[in-house]
Amino acid sequence: MTSSTVRRWAWIHKWSSLVCTLFMLLLCITGLPLIYHHDIVHLLGNDAAAPRMAPGTPRAGVDEVIAAGRAMYPDKIMMYMSQEVDEPDIWNLTLGDNPTDPNYKPIAVDARSARVLAEPAFEGGAFMSLMFHLHVDLYAGVPGKLFLGLMGLLLLVAIVSGVVLYAPFMRKLDFGTVRRDRTRRLKWLDLHNLLGIVTLVWALVVGATGMINTWAELLLNVWQTTEVAEMLRPYQGMAPAPATASVQLAVARAEAAEPGMKVAFVAFPGTPFSSTHHYGVFMRGDTALTARLYKPVLVDAQSGQVTDRRSLPWYLVALLMSQPLHFGDYGGAPMQFLWALFDVATMIMLGSGLYLWARRARAAKAAAQAGASLEAA
């Protein structure tokens, strides 16, 4: 590699790193508690737990579950109902003043007894809500997400350019060498390079999946204006009609249409994941991978008949697969611990990069001042 090529890659690495480092540090700090989101929410008592019952206890009807939730807020309407993969005995209901109410009321209802268990804290509580929004959108909505996506792209550029620069440098040293007997700056440079290589694959995976996640709204809009619009074409121009079909019937018809799959969530008429004429019943698989992938089934809210169902397009599949991979949700506690370990190592790597830049800038300034003093003398 020629000296001019090295300088070019060094310039790319320097500026891509400097621009994104502070934001990447913020994402690493806020991402650490999000890795253990469910554990922290449970520890703070902001979730709901289903009581123990005998195995095989029959489940209450879906309509009965909805009635229990609506009894708490009779003036509100149903927006969504969902079940977590690891909490099959709880229905999570979302009620609001309108189908897109941002100040919705979450209610947890026992799926077997149809008894209200709790009203979970909004977004898992104040602390987790703060961590989530700082990590996802900086409290700036879609523009904030896209900005963080750009920072993620710069991170990937910094990683690639760092690898290009690191390869010829390490031909002179054994892998993992940290020259502790040299200057502090050299010691931190070696540590920075070592942590960069150790966390390389993890940072690429988390950076790439994080960038994909920032496109979620854009990808959903593409899906809604293409495939969903095609699914709803027979209803085009029709006035909204009241939902008279039982939700239990809609769920049963969706389960019959997709045997072997389970209900992940139900979107009620008027919400972004349904239409003014339909229940959107989103089915999922029962394996670690397919449980993250949804298949929408549209059920006419008046007749209870399935009107359309189809697999999600590849770009939404990529989005759904990237979300749990970003936070290490696939492999349980061991993978969460590994993700947390790499997260901390990345924070140290980013911090050492800022330290090295500051030391170099200070040295350059001192040299310039010394040169000016000599010229004046």
From TrEMBL:
It holds the Pfam family PepSY_TM. InterPro entries: PepSY-ass_TM. Coiled coil: none annotated. It comes from the Bacteria. The chain crosses the membrane at residues 12-36, 146-170, 191-212, 337-358. The keyword Transmembrane applies. Keywords: Membrane, Transmembrane, Transmembrane helix. PANTHER family: BLL7967 PROTEIN, IRON-REGULATED INNER MEMBRANE PROTEIN-RELATED. This is Peptidase.
